[in-house]
Design a protein that fits this description.
Chain B: Keywords: PQQ biosynthesis. Chain B: Pathway: Cofactor biosynthesis; pyrroloquinoline quinone biosynthesis. Chain B: One of its GO terms (biological process) is pyrroloquinoline quinone biosynthetic process. Chain B: It comes from Prauserella sediminis. The structure holds two protein chains of two kinds. By secondary structure, chain A is an alpha/beta fold. A ten-stranded mixed β-sheet of chain A has the order 7-6-5-4-3-2-1-8-9-10. In chain A, helix 1 links the parallel strand 1 and strand 2. In chain A, helix 1 packs parallel to helix 2. Chain B is α+β, with helices and mostly antiparallel strands. Chain B has a single domain, classed as Coenzyme PQQ synthesis protein D (PqqD) (Arc Repressor Mutant, subunit A), CATH 1.10.10. Chain B has three helices and five strands. In chain B, the strands form two sheets. In chain B, strands 2-3-4 form a three-stranded antiparallel β-sheet, covered by helices on one side. In chain B, strands 1-5 form a two-stranded antiparallel sheet. In chain B, strand 3 and strand 4 form a beta hairpin. Chain B is globular, with a radius of gyration of 12 Å. Classes of the chains: A alpha/beta, B alpha+beta. The complex binds iron/sulfur cluster (2 copies). One iron/sulfur cluster binds next to helix 13 of chain A. The site of one iron/sulfur cluster has 9 residues of chain A, from helix 13.
Chain lengths: ~350, ~80
């Protein structure tokens, strides 16, 4: 260890209040093995996490899940985070967001809502979320606008909804979104199971590019459009946040503290829990946060690569998942000796279009 | 033209870092002392000359152009808009 020197306090915390969720998205990046309700942190424990996080320097709190509205103590947690001076963001499916609940949350200091969208119309959206969700989302967006909060719409793009890209952009416009994030699916947790059916085709990605570019231009000034590429098809990996353990931390429903939301992917990483150790110690001194901090852990080709300050060697989770070694270069990188693994996946015929919905029997 | 903070942007003081911070959906900005002083006056009512005059009472040699420059940068970062 001994990397603590020069480590900055975190800016943001993703608080995964619960893994329970009314939707069944096939692209869910939460782990296959979910935290059960009995193991979730209680209200006092979450309040302590929020206090500790603010002390540590956290300014942005993303209340997420699963569906955070499934927690009856959500209002108390919003009050706590907001009273501490944090910017509070609710990351929701929209299900369960009634006028009364939102009015209360706004009153308590909620600053921003991030709403997920699965498809452009009810038929597709309900199919892809495994629930009658679409109408609830329209209602939720309408409420957020009525309460004059900024609204971000988040779409995960994959093979079964790329054809509706234009429709989903139009939907976000109708919803009055201030920001639209169109992110090609990443393969962590549950999503990895469905990679075969979710991976967009080269043709889909080529068709998407001009659509996204035109929308970005047309909507400049009214709706910010952010597009996240499908990294498998790229030459270089996506940057790992702003570096491992650099600005963000995630607290899982049971109090496990993760350097990255997908960090449970790396089964060799020994993760720590707020139930056993103060958050500040975990941030500064734990093995898991120091494992891939800075550049000391890097090997060739990353160690001497001029892009290492841009992408930090790519994704640790993906390196582990595809090569079995979390300190390897992200195999998406064309300079990685393992790039062949990704190419093989791209070249494999897209066998099945069938995906397994999360938590549906 | 009167500048104001964009919807969803909040300006507060962070005691941990002992600096002003601008909080907004996508992130956090740490304005320098000059920018923070300007931001505190962006209420959608004051004009650029008003802001320069108000700052002039607290600091020596505040030029309208400098205030304008600071604001232009903040508009670029999508944290300030013209009302
Ligand atoms: S390790 Fe990978 S999944 Fe985790 S934050 Fe970095 S890039 Fe994202
Ligand atoms: S070699 Fe490493 S640092 Fe360089 S581009 Fe590839 S992943 Fe990034």
């Amino acid at each position: 260890m001994g990397v603590t020197e020069g480590v900055q306090p975190p800016l943001g915390m993703l608080a995964e209040l619960t893994h329970r969720c009314p939707l069944h998205c096939p692209y869910c990046s939460n782990p296959v093995e979910l935290v059960t309700r009995e193991r979730e942190l209680g209200t006092d424990e979450w309040c302590s996490v929020l206090d500790q996080a603010r002390d540590l320097g956290v300014l942005q709190v993303h209340l997420s899940g699963g569906e955070p509205l499934a927690r009856p103590d959500l209002p108390e947690l919003v009050t706590r985070a907001s009273d501490l001076g944090c910017y509070v963001n609710l990351v929701t499916s929209g299900l369960g967001l009634t006028e009364a609940r939102l009015a209360d949350l706004v009153d308590r200091g909620l600053a921003h809502v991030q709403l997920s969208v699965q498809g452009a119309d009810a038929e597709r959206a309900n199919l892809l979320s495994g629930a009658k969700a679409h109408d609830h989302k329209l209602t939720a967006a309408e409420l957020v606008k009525r309460f004059e909060l900024p609204l971000s719409v988040n779409v995960v793009l994959h093979r079964a909804n790329h054809d509706q890209l234009e429709g989903m952009i139009a939907l976000a416009e109708r919803m009055g979104a201030d920001r639209l994030e169109l992110a090609n699916t990443q393969f962590y947790g549950w999503a990895l199971r469905n990679r075969d059916a979710l991976l967009p085709t080269r043709e889909q990605l080529a068709a998407a590019e001009p659509v996204v570019r035109a929308a970005t231009e047309r909507l400049r000034g009214s709706m910010q459009v952010v597009y996240v590429l499908s990294d498998y098809y790229e030459q270089y990996p996506k940057p790992c946040m702003s570096g491992w353990g650099a600005q963000q931390l995630t607290v899982a429903p049971d109090g496990t503290v993760l350097p990255c939301p997908a960090a449970t992917t790396i089964t060799t990483l020994s993760l720590e829990n707020v139930r056993e150790r103060p958050l500040a110690e975990i941030w500064y001194d734990s093995e898991s946060f120091n494992a891939y901090r800075g550049e000391d852990w890097m090997r060739e080709p990353c160690r001497t690569c001029e892009r290492r300050t841009i992408d930090f060697g790519g994704c640790r989770c993906q390196a582990f998942q595809l090569t079995g070694d979390a300190a390897a270069a992200d195999p998406v990188c064309r300079r990685s000796p393992d790039r062949g693994l990704v190419d093989a996946l791209l070249e494999a015929p897209h066998g099945s279009n069938e995906f397994v919905m999360r938590g549906m029997r | 033209m009167t500048p104001r903070l964009c919807r969803g942007v909040r300006l507060t003081y962070d005691h941990t870092r002992q600096t002003h911070v601008l909080l907004f959906p996508e992130g956090v900005l740490m304005p320098n002392a000059t920018a923070a002083a300007v931001l505190e006056l962006c209420d959608g009512e004051r004009t650029v000359p008003d802001i320069a005059a108000a700052l002039g009472e607290r600091y020596a040699e505040v030029r309208e152009d400098d205030v304008g420059d600071v604001l232009a940068r903040l508009v670029d970062r999508r944290v300030v808009e013209w009302a």
